[in-house]
Amino acid sequence: MNLIYITLDSLNRHFLPCYGNEWVQTPNLDRLAAKGVVFDRHYAGSVPCMPARREMWTGSEEFWWRWWGPLEPWDRTLAYEMGRGGVTSQLITDHYHFFEWGAHSYEYDFDGYLAVRGHEHDNYRLKPVEEPPAWARVLLERRPHDAPIYIRNVQDFEGEEDFFSPRTLAAAARWLRHERPRGSWYLHVDAFDPHEPFHVPEPYRSMYTADDYRRYSPWPLYGRVDRGPSALSAEELAWVRAQYAGKVTMADRWLGRVLDAMDEDGLWEDTILVLTTDHGHYLGDHGWIGKPQCPVYDTLVHIPLILYWPGCEGGTRCSAMTQTIDLYPTLLEMMGLAVPGSPRLHGRSFAPVLRGERREHRDHAVSGYYGGRLAVRSEGWTLLRAQDPSRGPLYEYTHDMQVLDRSFRARRRPPDEFVVPDIVAGRFIPGVEMPVWRIPEGRDWGEVHADLLFGPDDPGQERNVAAEYPAQVRRLEEVLREHMRERQVPEEIFQRLRVD
């Protein structure tokens, strides 16, 4: 058996026709959905990008112990376990976070990897830009400090094939046609699109709007759309949503190259294909833009998952609740490989659901940011809660000194002024016998919002009913408390979330 695992970063399920959208064109995602199983209740756990990837690659729930970091020495990634089972692995990605300071080592366990350079803040090219292009002028006004990096990287792009998701997915198709090895293999494709900047060429730029692109920035600031530096007019917000949709459609077109390669080489007979994302992206939803530290609405964490495996009944849907951490054990089981018995494995295989041996998988799901907000959902109800910093300190637990460096920088204190007793080494992580650092966290994780509760009759999460249903708030608090006890979450998090 073989595996293709595709991640499209920041892919909103409500922009996909297979999840009910009626205006965005995704013929190849529809084509995959017609061959596989569409999951209707799949949720991210830790967000955003790198916390989500550690969950996908190790099955370990991330956000209780640290923010953004590398793989840890005790992590046994999907690629590592595949290699132990004799499966050859290849990573193809334009997700530059894998290779930057603070998030290294993700590529180490693959037999081969290809990095497509230049997306977002990738410090790739230094060639000066003589004259900013028309599409970038408002962008430079709004983001004078970070936009020049991206503009330098893309200044010589001439056509669609130069853009990032086309290059990444075309490389995956070439690998399938010409480079895949004999024997069992695992191809992991991690495309950064449709992540911002929402910069797309024609025909995608004007596919969903007739507005003049020179009036707007394709890279909005994070925050509220109704006030502050991130504020957007209704017209600009509509244009931004149209550019995001254009990116989705462009990525979909090049996904078709991968599906074509599977058709031509008969790979559907012995290949599992998974397509998902790390998280969604606010595009005016609930008044927010981007991925700021705001309440963890379903817009961000109720994510798409489409899974094909040989012999599955095409065009079906799965209503069982699943999470990102479940993909790791599920795919190992489907590949016929042993699932590690580590206490750090928080995911559970949902292969029995796909085989029809049971209907349900999880009775609750928890999603959130390290140090900040989270969502707990059970029996159709969802409680959104924020950690309260006034109730106690916050720490990161890791072996990696780059996290310590980030703490220095965040506090604007040079290393020689840092008080050594602030940092303690010990066995703080359950299931990990080696000592790790406990590092005091000094960053501001945003305002503490009041509890938000949404009922089963409110899928858009528009009406907060916390005051009307205090018993449901208490029930979900207990669900959260028991979840945290099972994970052996640090005691200070119980206090900060008011479930101690």
- Which term fits the overall shape? globular
- Supply Rg: 22 Å
Multimer state: single chain
Largest sheet: 8 strands, mixed
Number of helices: 13
Strand content: 15-25%
Return the CATH topology of the largest domain: Alkaline Phosphatase, subunit A
Widest sheet, order of strands: 4-3-5-1-7-10-2-11
Task: Specify the CATH class of the largest domain.
Answer: Alpha Beta
> What is the CATH architecture assignment of the largest domain?
3-Layer(aba) Sandwich
CATH superfamily of the largest domain: Alkaline Phosphatase, subunit A
> Helical content, roughly?
25-40%
Q: What is the number of strand segments?
A: 18
What's the number of domains? Answer: 2
Characterization of the model:
With 500 residues, the protein is an alpha/beta fold. Helices cover 28% and strands 18% of the residues. The protein has helices at residues 27-35, 49-58, 78-84, 137-142, 147-154, 164-179, 234-264, 298-301, 327-334, 351-354, 401-411, 470-487, 491-496, and strands at 2-8, 37-43, 88-93, 112-115, 185-191, 223-224, 271-276, 282-283, 288-290, 305-308, 316-323, 364-368, 373-378, 381-386, 395-398, 424-426, 436-440, 452-454. The chain has 2 domains: 2-359, Alkaline Phosphatase, subunit A (3-Layer(aba) Sandwich), CATH 3.40.720.10; 365-496, no CATH class. Strand 8 and strand 9 form a beta hairpin. It is built from 13 helices and 18 strands. Helix 1 (27-35) packs across helix 7 and helix 6 packs parallel to helix 7. An 8-stranded mixed β-sheet has the order 4-3-5-1-7-10-2-11, with helices on both faces. Strands 12-13-14-18 form a 4-stranded antiparallel β-sheet, covered by helices on one side. The termini are far apart.
